[in-house]
Specification:
Strand 4, helix 4 and strand 5 (113-117) form a beta-alpha-beta unit. This protein is α/β, with parallel strands linked by helices and 285 residues long. The protein has helices at residues 18-25, 45-57, 72-83, 99-109, 120-124, 126-130, 143-150, 159-171, 188-200, 213-221, 225-244, 259-273, and strands at 9-14, 31-35, 63-65, 90-93, 113-117, 140-141, 206-208, 249-250, 256-257. Helix 9 packs parallel to helix 10 and helix 11 crosses helix 12 (259-273). The strands form 2 sheets. It has a 7-stranded parallel β-sheet. It has a two-stranded antiparallel sheet with strand order 8-9. It folds into 2 domains: 9-221, TIM Barrel (Alpha-Beta Barrel), CATH 3.20.20; 225-273, no CATH class.
Length: 285
Amino acid sequence: MTAAPPPRTWLYVPGDRPDRIGKALASAADAVILDLEDAVAPAAKDEARRQVVRTLAEGAHAYVRINVPSSPEGAADIAALAAAPSAPAGVRVPKSEDPGELSRVADALGVPVHPLIESALGVENAAVLATAHPLVAGISLGEADLAADLRTGGGDALAWPRSRVVVAARAAGLPSPAQSVWTAVRDLDGLRADTAAGRRAGFFGRSVIHPAQIPVVHEASAPDPADVAWARELMDQLTTATERGDAAWIDSTGRFVDKAIVERATWLLAVAESGGRPVNEGHHS
């Protein structure tokens, strides 16, 4: 069965703000995350929980970011969602480090879980978190918290954790990870360049915190037109090569082409034809 294309944009919205929730659900975001964690003040946690349950009961297709499962707030989030009449599309689990804890969340809720890796220990455990439970549907980084834990300013210091998470996700048969939030909301040029760089590094799409970021990320998530043109030309050459019985050949630019290059070209064309969203990236199981 063909897997649904993964979201290009994951729009966070505070769970205690019904006015913003309505706007988020009506936006062009591919996925909406009703946030019970960082976007909600401690005094508003109970109301946010009730509002999220109401929103889901009204038929909204949305994800929920819960609080850390081992905390009292996280336990209350899990209990409320488990008892709710309508389930979320999935849950994001912050500060994920323990595969056992992640499995308990998945068993309690029975919906796809998306661990957020936000600490040095989480990065070290990326591979086991990605395979902790059949309901793990994707992993991603929370870079602000991770940078704080690593005592760095972010940027190039996060290059290795980013690669680690990309490799762990693909090794587990999960979609390419979404990038972390770009916090400079007004810097859309920076967002565009950073998202394009992330795509080249193996990420796909990203979390966003403002509707203005959505079209920029969608544009930057699409494959480069020159790459698509190259892929189409290569597939034309493949027909001729197949007729000759060649498994590998030198293309018109002098580049060696074999099975791996053909697979990349095929993937690029599939992404282009699906509006910039890759397909067939679900779990192997």
